[in-house]
Amino acid sequence: MxxxxxxxxxxxxxxxxxxxTRTVYDGAIITLRIDDVAMPGGRxxxxxxxxxxxxxxxxxxxxxxxxAMVRQYRHPLRRRxxxxxxxxxxxxxxxxxxxxxxxxxxxxxxxxxxxxxxxVDLALSPGFTDEALRLYLAEGLHVLDSAExxxxxxxxxxxxxxxxxxxxxxxxxxIVNATSVAGILAVAASDARDGGLRPVTAPWPDEPTALRxxxxxx
Length: 218
Fold this sequence. Notes:
This protein folds into two domains: 1-52, no CATH class; 55-210, Alpha-Beta Complex (Nucleoside Triphosphate Pyrophosphohydrolase), CATH 3.90.79. It is built from four helices and ten strands; from the N terminus they run E-E-E-E-E-E-E-H-E-E-E-H-H-H.
């Protein structure tokens, strides 16, 4: 595997060519690979990269200005967190990010929406992982039949929260999920500047592809 980032002379122009790569762990939702990368000055350094499916999340806002949130158990923290509906891009190559967001909204909170926009794109920890997430704003909501839920999702509780209350909970440290913090604050900022959101067809240059290429089906 080879690759390069930028070319030319001077700071900010070095080609970070990948001279070799190897997989050291292949798990259910992540793969860990090690790349040998050419550094400025001629040194070759190992860089650990966690490949991830990527994900989508949804700020679903009703006509009263409330947003749908779920209280879900997160085992690494050993507690329940208040979060936006979200899920992995793990359903195969034929499902777009928008399709995945619509699926997750139906599966987690039994909702569909007529109006969709891209809210923000996140690179969640680019120092070691290609994990990226696209957040959508969904409005014009209508209720669907209850979905069947399993494992942690079978224990989820849906809560409707006003945007002002959600922002207050973020600032109080009560909402700590990074995706949810970003989505809530992004909607508040968008409202303050009267919109300007991107269409759902907007390019997503950092959408992860490596893990999905390894595993084309779920």
